[in-house]
Amino acid sequence: MMTSEDEIILHSQRLAHVREWCAERNACFIALDSFAIRWLTGFTGSNGIVYLDPDCQVLFTDSRYAEQAPVEIARHGVDVKCEIALDPFNSIARLSRKRDVHLDGEKCSWSTKEKIESLIEGKVINAHKFCQELRCIKDNSEIVKIRTAAEITCMALDSALAELNAETTERELARNIESLMIKHGALNAAYPPIVAAGTNSALPHASPSNQRICDTNLLLVDVGANYEGYCSDMTRMIPLSKLTQEQEYASQMVLDAQTKAIEAIRPGIKAKEIDGICRDAISNVIPGGEFLHGTGHGVGLEIHEYPSINSRSDDILREGMVITVEPGIYIQGSYGVRWEDLLLVTDSGVEYLTNYEKRIQVLDSNG
Ligand SMILES: [Mn+2]
Questions:
Q1: How far is the CA of 291 from the centre of ligand 1 (A)?
Q2: Is 230 exposed, middle or buried (0-12, 13-18, 19+ CB in 10 A)?
Q3: Which of 105, 112, 126, 309 lies 20 to 30 A from 29 at CA?
């Protein structure tokens, strides 16, 4: 895979940005998780640590990646020093001198924290908020990848549904969607697809079962592809045969709530306001129907990233964020409805990254 000129500049800029942040507080920064490491350096291996301070940038990894790591780093145009080390913490302690070491506390095990603390002279400081903010505004190369992941998802869902027959089970459809995504260029599914027919749709995170889909009248599909590390996320309701009046009403109400919330999105709006619009629009519209989760989340290298769109969130939406809006109503033991789209926050509103049809009801047999 070729790396564009833009991307080469981007990775160097990202590293420079974090090192400037270090310089401002005379501190060091380490990235321990593969997502942050990939974002900073382009290295895609499963094990490594990126160490940054105002004067130095090092990627530590193990001998399995002795060949891959320098190649990937060079391809992304960053002059990170690559060191193969079984135990990099002594080196990190030496490099850090008396400075504090900042890291993402959400990505660091307790034992790793204790180990670093025992070796360094400075303190270990949780820089979780800084790490979240680093990646929440997507640059052009990231948006292109996320948009491609979304397009692949839509193509795969379309083909998989066209092949649906009376025998197809939830598990088979989930598998078919996944393999079609790979056929269309995805690395894999961004998360295990949720394929929930009939009563299973009442569970927001149902595991696909051996139930035959066409024995039921409605299907919930929550799928996303991973394209070059970047995720997409989308949920569609598929009417299989005539929905009951209540199901049709629930589906329409959730879709209307989603549309209304999306129309309100603009830079500067509070995430909790978007959540409130959905919650106000769908609470108590169906007897026994509950909205069991938050309205949405950021998407990028990880399927769930900053910001969070729920009633407890203090996050503010900003231009360049990629987020989901996914209200749902679930009636225990009966059925559930959720509509989810992936959206890019623009300077004045949003751009839909998932463009897949939304059909509430099956076409009348005589119409
Ligand atoms: Mn989602």
A1: 14
A2: buried
A3: 309
User: Which residues, 6+ apart, have CB-to-CB distance to 336 below 8 Å?
Assistant: 196, 201, 202, 203, 204, 220, 328, 329, 330
Distance 326 CA to ligand 1 centre (A): 7
Superfamily (CATH H level) for 5-135: Creatinase/prolidase N-terminal domain (3.40.350.10)
| Arithmetic mean of pLDDT, 165-175 | 98
Instruction: Give the distance (Å) from ligand 1 centre to CA of residue 282.
Output: 18
| pLDDT per position as a tens digit, 9-57 | 789 999 999 999 999 999 999 999 999 999 999 999 999 999 999 999 9
The fourth-level CATH superfamily of domain 140-352 is Creatinase/methionine aminopeptidase superfamily (3.90.230.10)
Distance from the alpha carbon of residue 203 to the mean position of ligand 1, in angstroms? 14
Q: How far is the CA of 324 from the centre of ligand 1 (A)?
A: 6
* Surface-to-core class of residue 184, CB atoms within 10 Å of its CB (0-12 exposed, 13-18 middle, 19+ buried): middle
